[in-house]
Amino acid sequence: MNRTTLSLIAGATVLAAVTGFAALSAPDTPGSDSTAKAAAQLPVERTSLLCPAPSMSDIAETSYSSFTPVTKGTGSGGKAELQAAAQESREGSGAGGDKGKGNGKSGERKTDKPVLTSKEPGKPVTGDSSGAESPALVGTADGRFAPGWTVQETTEVAAGTGRGLQGVNCTAPDTSFWFPGASTAADRTDYVHLTNPDDSAAVVDIELYGKDGTLQSTVGEGITVQPHSSEPLLLSTLTDEQQTDLTVHVNVRSGRVGAAVQALDDKVGGDWLAASTDPSGSLVLPGIPKDATSVRLVAFTPGDADADLKLRLASPSGLITPAGHETVHVKGGMTTAVDLGDVTRGEAGSLVLTPTDRSVPVVAALRVVRGKGDKQETAFIPATRPVGTRATSADNSAKGSTLSLTAPGRTATVEVTASAGSEGGTPVSKTYTIKAGTTQDIEPPVPSGLKGTYALTVEPKSGGPVYGARTLAATQGGVPGFTVQTLPDDRGTVAVPEADEDLSVLQK
């Protein structure tokens, strides 16, 4: 096969990787050609993940868990590795003026030795770091390690601003990220972390939207992130305005980055705020802890049109409308926040947002608080994609993990598999039925003879779309530390259409 044919096939595969999720999720179009050949589902061959620098606290303890589920159709080769990214100068991290503009070090890695290397699909591998010098990580998986590769970063901070449990799923690089729920208030210290995995510099704009619209900021324009490096930018240095509720848009002009917001509070702990799913007319925010004492919804619509949304809670018994919060009005280009109080009232719950009339794209996230008084802790739940074909949660232990699943439309059947443990144990699977319009908190299965941590893989088997989240909880000094990670489809496979024509003529 000559190079021309190979290039065409490679191009088709890349296109399928970009459009594969849409092909899996789009409904049948009336009048479509039923004779068209079905696309083949093939495992992805390469995946990149980026982990932000975990903490600036000297007393932080961070663990990493890397896991790839076993996927049919993969070969025997490949590897998955995480390496330390070069750190930009801490003094140049978004403190105004030229700082945060890429004037730090050139982006050489501190070491070429991998921080974490996976051994085999189906078994997690773990690693640890401590203190404020823990770097961001840049990871690549290929071959049999690529499909569904998941890395969880979990940090325990014993005291100080942001104390508690902080967790984040390491993310794939992209060119646009939305973060409703950030803040520049006096009691908040929020950083947006940008990590560039590539050999060339990335140029990024950070746009801030408050309750009255766009916040003026020239410092957030044209930020350069050097190759193989990470840049934490303090949001309060990008604007003079103090606002409790902000939406942050990370827009990449050239290149690509991974992005996450670390939201730290002086009094009620802190956590990572992951990006909301792409703007959509309907959104699901799954996995509100049943003992949440305060829930705050932050929503934003990027366009000029206002959005009117019906607000419902998917409870264990069905969809209910919280009294006094039947709808929410989101003005175009402005961030809207709504306090929902203890909306779950002691039961598992997920928030479902749908348009009251016409559909207007929206992004949203929840700020969730557990505990009371000086024993409070915070986590965030962004709107997320459905589980789709498969989703994975890493870094689970025998105690402290809760899996929350919701089926906002039709009843669904889901298989949950607990992997082997990182230090030993036999996988176990269990099937659950999630009734239409409900959320079910389940105590996930645990591997037989578990040693170490393990991963959970969620695979819908029948019925309507399922959305999920995993909560990790660890109480320290009476503070109910917790962190929530949503479970979107892992995009471990891509749809590759069968060729209708003989391309052999291209070999000439």
**Low-pLDDT segments, ≥5 res:** 1-36, 89-110, 501-508
Instruction: Report helical residue fraction.
Output: under 10%
Q: CA-to-CA gap between the ends?
A: 10 Å
Lateral arrangement of strands in the main beta sheet = 5-16-12-18-19
Biggest β-sheet: count, sense, barrel? 5 strands, mixed
Overall mean pLDDT stands at 87
Number of strands: 39
Total of helices: 1
Strand content: over 45%
Q: Please state the CA-atom Rg, rounded to the nearest Å.
A: 22 Å
The coarse overall form would be globular
- Secondary-structure-derived class: mainly beta
Task: Using brief descriptors, characterize the structure shown.
5-stranded antiparallel sheet, disordered N terminus, mainly beta, 5% helix, single chain, 508 residues
What does this structure look like?
With 508 residues, the protein is mostly beta strands. The protein has one helix and 39 strands. The chain has one helix at 3-25, and strands at residues 40-43, 46-51, 60-67, 78-84, 86-87, 116-117, 125-130, 137-143, 150-157, 164-169, 176-182, 188-196, 202-210, 213-214, 223-225, 229-234, 246-254, 258-265, 270-273, 283-288, 292-300, 307-315, 318-320, 327-330, 335-341, 349-355, 363-370, 377-382, 391-396, 401-407, 412-418, 424-426, 428-434, 438-442, 448-451, 454-463, 467-476, 479-486, 493-496. The strands form ten sheets. A five-stranded mixed sheet has the order 5-16-12-18-19, with no helix packed on it. Strands 11, 13, 14, 15 and 17 form a five-stranded antiparallel sheet that branches. The longest helix has 23 residues, at 3-25. Residues 1-36, 89-110 and 501-508 have low confidence and may be disordered.
